[in-house]
Amino acid sequence: MRNINEDTITQAVIASFSDCRDGRLRTVMTSLVQHLHAFARDVHLTEDEWFKAIRFLTEVGHITDDKRQEFILLSDTLGLSMLVMSQNNRKPSNCTEATVFGPFYVEGAPLYNNGEDISNGAKGAPCYVSGQVRGAGGEAIPDAQIDVWQSDEDGFYDVQHLDEAGNVIHRARGRLKGDAEGFFNFRSILAEAYPIPHDGPVGRMLAAVGRHPWRPAHLHFMIEAPGYETLITHVFRDGDKYLESDVVFGVRSTLIAEWKRHEPGVAPDGWEIDVPWYSLEYDFVLNPSEAHA
Ligand code: BEZ
Ligand code: FE
Fold this sequence. Notes:
GO terms for molecular function: catechol 1,2-dioxygenase activity; ferric iron binding. By secondary structure, this protein is an alpha+beta fold.
């Protein structure tokens, strides 16, 4: 293999994969090289630009640790996370749509009983959340596990606040089960819009291309029930000014709901609230898993 030039380099690299025994890996690597080279030709990438890109990816790596995943933020802000998620989670139109997972999920979040207060002291206006989990045929799904997590009124998740000893206290996050008819409710706080972490290379990239780092206010849900595909989604707050420009492209109109504002009073579960409060009612429809359909 000699005298390779700019016209023959792509085929030479692809040919170098010919002994790869993993067929899928060979397919992926071949396509990656084709697109990477086509991109470099398309923009006539300069050496200076190539080096800047290497430096950028190096910075993305350096800021990444077990708490901060800048590569996922990069994928999110370039729409790759939403594309990969969408093409792997196609559902019948009557099912609740999925959206990005995001970096703030915590496995094994605190367990609550249906109806309890998951805020655990998080800052924000009181909010009563209720709904039902059903299957695509309209059937109630009993005992679904509902994982919920959200930001506080300052736009931060619990995992972004450490106490003096450097520990996280879980707030506005929890796991609970719906009842035998699929109904669930919990007390929490009002979700607010927040900027994704933008003090690193991804934030600099956003600023350089004239984009803001904000996500519209939302509640995250992961809903699991035997016989159904796990649903990972958000419910977005109607009226939020960032609904049309979510930095991670995650908004679906079917996921936008009204958070109703109420004067001080009593919530449907008897919760007496002496300040203005909000309520959200949203039902989730799960797709039967293939084995179950
Ligand atoms: C989130 O909604 O938690 C999120 C999603 C993508 C990037 C950053 C945050
Ligand atoms: Fe979020």
